[in-house]
């Protein structure tokens, strides 16, 4: 399925890049489209989850692709890097109306087994939202708060890079650079290629005019390479939210250690494979340089290609892999480095 979002001039003017702790908290515990970093983070975070967080976790994972819109409130902030934090986002969540709650829960009522948290929200509305707010606060405090300062710095670096790119090259090239699943065409349409588990209707093609609402672009280390996460619904009445994999800026690491920033971003095996391509290499040459089998080398190359770090072409029986401009930038900035 392909989702076509039609952006007019007003939509482009209202498209923003933001750093959101609540969006990242929800994506971090969402079971969909995981990144390697999210899987590793979640393994440690699960041990710290408290019972208070249960209503929120149930809502996040109730549906295979839909997260209720009211869980990710959009704050009215000027500029690309809002100064809002988790407290302001939770205040906005607490202020959600009963009408919005009921509208946003509609897709969950059709589930074969409606979660208890959904039934409670339908029956008590805003009173149950207070429990959701408490659950989000507890989940953030126990699982993400310690990592958030370093993560926020990394995400702000990504936002700064994308913002500069948007100013220099325009929205189209910036949007398509966020993920291989995004295509900009006809100077006004952003097409998202959705996987089988994300199909939102029986149609192969769905078009939505954003009607001046614009796009909210949220970098996240928890979005898998080569993916884009749509949190909530895409309608003309609410700003569409796209979370994309943050790849600019070093991942957080302990002080005083040698840190391979590239490995922290894409994984140790992929980083080693990208360095082994070293400009260009056939699959056989890559396997020889890494000391692995051809099939394993092909898997590494496929993952790097999906992340936009290499391009691939065939000549006769040989498959050649070439590092992209993005791959070269990551190689240049990716360490290892000595942290102070």
Question: Would you kindly provide a written description of the structure presented here, covering whatever features stand out?
Answer:
This protein has two domains: 2-245, no CATH class; 258-338, Arc Repressor Mutant, subunit A (Orthogonal Bundle). Helix 4 (54-60) packs across helix 8 (126-144) and helix 12 crosses helix 14 (294-306). The strands form four sheets. It has a four-stranded mixed sheet with strand order 3-4-1-5. Helix content is 46%, strand content 16%. By secondary structure, the chain is an alpha/beta fold. It is built from 15 helices and 13 strands.
Low-pLDDT stretches: 78-83, 196-201, 250-258, 335-340
> Averaged pLDDT, please?
79
Beta percentage is 15-25%
Q: Going across the major beta sheet, what is the strand order?
A: 3-4-1-5
Q: Got a strand count?
A: 13
Shape: globular
- Helix fraction, binned, reads 40-55%
Using only C-alpha atoms, the radius of gyration works out to 21 Å
Total domains: 2
Secondary structural class: alpha/beta
| SS element count, helices | 15
Order of helices and strands: EHEHHHHHHHHHEEEEEEEHHEHHEEHE
The rounded distance between the terminal residues' Cα atoms is: 48 Å
Tell me the major beta sheet: 4 strands, mixed
Architecture blueprint of SSEs:
Blueprint: E1 2-6, H1 9-14, E2 16-17, H2 21-29, H3 36-46, H4 54-60, H5 86-94, H6 98-109, H7 116-124, H8 126-144, H9 148-169, H10 171-176, E3 182-185, E4 189-193, E5 205-209, E6 215-220, E7 229-230, E8 240-245, E9 258-259, H11 261-266, H12 268-277, E10 280-282, H13 283-290, H14 294-306, E11 310-315, E12 318-323, H15 325-333, E13 337-338
